[in-house]
Amino acid sequence: MPRIPIVTSGTVADVLVDTDIFIDHLRGAAALAPGKHRLHYSVVTRAELFAGSSATDAVSRLLSPFREVLVTRDVAERAGRIRRECGVRLPDALIAATALEHGLTVATRNRGDFEKVRGVRIRALR
User: Fold this and answer.
1) How would you write the pLDDT of the chain (126 residues) with one tens digit per residue?
2) Segments of the chain assigned E as strands
3) What are the binding residues for Mg(2+)?
4) Which residues of the sequence carry a binding annotation for Mg(2+) (predicted)?
């Protein structure tokens, strides 16, 4: 199974891992390769993973070492504006808003939608 390097620089980075990266891991397409970083995920990602998988124990185990970031009022309001202005799907708007509010870089294969949102730092993965 290929390994997905989340951060390749020598500095500690705070990274918000997008749902697609976790899905790849669960499907066996790629394994998450921890490096020198602090990994986070949005509670939206938790919902998406539980909606798409009957293997809830595997999802819980996968997410357990990561820091969960909640959707606050500020995140929700910013996501609403992002959705309206950029036309991205609501889950992606919530993840982008979470990254912006918390100063996180988004690790994703879904570069296209996140590039529509001004200010979001992206670590694009293949």
Assistant:
1) 444 444 444 455 799 999 999 999 888 877 776 666 789 999 999 999 999 877 789 999 999 999 999 999 999 999 999 999 999 999 999 999 999 999 999 999 989 989 999 999 998 765
2) 3-5, 13-17, 31-33, 37-42, 67-69, 105-108, 121-124
3) 18, 92
4) 18, 92
Model confidence, pTM: 0.86
Q: Please enumerate, by residue number, every residue annotated as part of a binding site.
A: 18, 92
- Sequence ranges of the domains in the chain: 3-124
For residue 122, the tally of other CB atoms under 10 A from its CB is 17
What are φ and ψ of residue 106, in 5° steps?
Answer: -90, 125
